[in-house]
Amino acid sequence: MSFKQIYKDAAEGLSATFHSFSQSRLLASRPLDDPSRRGICRALCLYEAHYAKGNRSREFKRDMPGLVDKICSLQENISVQNSTTLSEAFAELYEKQAQNLGLTYIAQSHFVPDVYNWLQGAAGYATRNPFYVQMVLPNHVVSVRPGAHGGVSFFDPNVGQISCPRAELFFLLHTIFNNPEISDAYQLTGAPEVFLVYLA
């Protein structure tokens, strides 16, 4: 089953809406030796939060063709100099890059190894606080943020965006990330390290 179908099925099982998105399509025309072809998920999540904070979420996908070069540049601009741990590196990186997009780095949480803990953390912060939560997985970045009409929005740059009521967010994330295909692809089996980065 495709990731898109897994996400659509998860959304249809709730009072949620799904809109497709694909970073691989954005990168398909770039040269084979372009480092961005490895993925631009972290930068996409930052830009998605930037648009959401500016009440321009509907323009995010429409503006994407003109933003790809900026997003690729942001993804590759990883100048972390003063950090000794991965947690410090994320703090330094997000402090710099979030500020350039009108966002503020608040804090982060580090989870290992229980997937339920970070899912609850992400759902809790996104539903109880007006934060934009970047979920840094072992080989991918997804995000959760406040949505329209008091709801929340989950964004996976590989697949798309799901908007749902706050009360259904944890169940939605649990359904998606406990799917064996998703869990294997995003390296969530075993004892993965997951960081939640909170922005405002």
> What is the CATH C-level name?
Alpha Beta
CA gyration radius, whole angstroms? 16 Å
Distance between the termini: 35 Å
How much is the average pLDDT?
Answer: 89
Oligomer: single chain
Query: Count of DSSP E strands?
Result: 7
| Major sheet attributes | 7 strands, antiparallel
* CATH fold field value: Cathepsin B, Chain A
Order of helices and strands: HEHHHHEHEEEEHHE
Uncertain segments of ≥5 residues (pLDDT<50)? none
Percent of residues in helical segments? Answer: 40-55%
Q: What class would the helix/strand composition place it in? A: alpha+beta
Number of H/I helices: 8
Sheet with the most strands: spatial strand order: 1-6-5-4-3-7-2
Provide the domain count: 1
Structure, described:
With 200 residues, the chain is of the alpha+beta class. The protein has one domain (3-199): Alpha-Beta Complex (Cathepsin B, Chain A). It contains eight helices and seven strands; from the N terminus they run αβααααβαββββααβ. The protein has helices spanning 3-12, 23-27, 41-53, 57-76, 86-100, 115-128, 169-177, 180-185; strands at 17-20, 105-111, 132-137, 140-146, 152-156, 160-164, 194-199. The chain has a seven-stranded antiparallel sheet, sandwiched between helices. α6 packs antiparallel against α7. The protein is globular, with a radius of gyration of 16 Å.
